[in-house]
Amino acid sequence: MSPPQINIIVPIYNEKEVFDSLIKRLDNVMLLSRLNIEVILIDDGSTDGTDIKMNNLSKKNEAYQSIFLSRNFGHQSAITTGLYYANATEGVMIIDADLQDPPEVLDEFYKYFLQGYDVVYAIRKSRKESWYKKMSYQFFYFLLKKISNIEIPVNSGDFSLLSKRAVDYLNMMPEESRYIRGMRSWIGFNQIGIEINRDQRHSGKPKYSLKKLLKLALNGIFNFSEYPIRIVFTIGLVVLFVSLVYFGYTLIQKVVYNTAPEGFTALLFTIILFGGIQLISLGLIGGYVIRIFFQVKNRPLFIVKRRVFKKNILLK
Fold first, then answer.
1. By the 8 A CB rule, do 44 and 281 touch?
2. Which long-range contacts (C-beta less than 8 Å, at least 24 apart) are formed by 289-293?
3. Helix, strand, coil: what percent of the chain each, to 5?
4. Are 276 and 185 part of one and the same domain?
5. Dihedral, 169, 173, 4, 153 alpha carbons, nearest 10
6. What is the Cα–Cα distance from 259 to 255, expressed in whole angstroms?
7. 289 lies in which domain range?
8. Do 208 and 66 belong to one domain?
């Protein structure tokens, strides 16, 4: 069987409820498209039976390859797995399994790909999500745009079509704390954003908890900005300046007027304030240090338990 033109990468974690609808829509995309497409499903340690459905599908349908990770490595690592095993001759599409992003836009993305764009990504024109999530995303993207070393498009997720050479360069990047959409922007090349309407989750519960979203946001900030370190340095300069002014004021009061400011409460407040600033500063610096700590361990980004496709079961 010759390599496909396009791989569709789908990271999956406990999506039993939506799986059949996902496959139905992907089947329809492949049926209507003139492209030779292979779907790569990556199971990120599912425990609800999703892995069984994937296994059965890939054994009987050559359009689907299933990759099973040895445990739950996380969404970004699952995408990384798919990029590593992609063998398409032209490009790779990344899409989540929850069907909030429509797989039917593949052909539209491909039109821009033929015009010379290495990266075609979706911009969420509207979100059918809670106001809390909408506000959180807006604040995060606003903050990231202000402090990032590179321009990361606002309201763009991982949903995208990447050229083969873009995928090759992403595979060269060994970051342990991964932020795919930031890495995608960093590689450069011709990129374009296409507006889409983001639907509600088809069924089941969201897999990105508040904790996971916060971790992803911190990866985006710490991986693509030195601004937190600059904040620490700026705070240090301000504190030093205030301290020198206060010292000069105290010295003048003592030498000229033979008096000194009194007030234990003010002194205690000042100590607590500066102590808090020091702890925050240590936390910001620690954000970089902990990422260096995990990076230098040089552990694999994922471990594949097995790969399954029609008439073949590969252990690796």
1. no
2. 291/176, 291/177, 291/222, 291/223
3. 50, 20, 30
4. no
5. -70
6. 8
7. 227-296
8. yes
Q: In this structure, how many other beta carbons lie within 10 angstroms of the beta carbon of residue 309?
A: 20
CA distance 119 to 2: 24
> Within 13 A of 257's CA, how many CA atoms are on the CB side?
8
Structural domain count of the chain: 2
Tokens of 187: 């590689």
Q: Are the C-beta atoms of 122 and 194 separated by less than 8 Å?
A: yes
Phi first, then psi, for residue 237 (nearest 5°) are -65, -40
Q: Assess whether 292 and 146 both reside in one domain.
A: no
Rounded to two decimals, what is the model's pTM?
0.74
pLDDT given at position 316: 44
Inter-residue contact 174 to 101 (CB < 8 Å): no
166, two tokens: 């873009």
Instruction: Going from the first residue of the chain to its last (316 residues), give the mean pLDDT of each consecutive group of 10, the final group possibly shorter.
Output: 87 90 92 91 91 90 92 90 92 91 90 92 74 68 70 80 93 84 87 82 57 66 70 74 72 70 61 71 75 76 87 51
The answer to whether residues 158 and 218 belong to one domain is yes
Structure tokens at 210: 């508040």
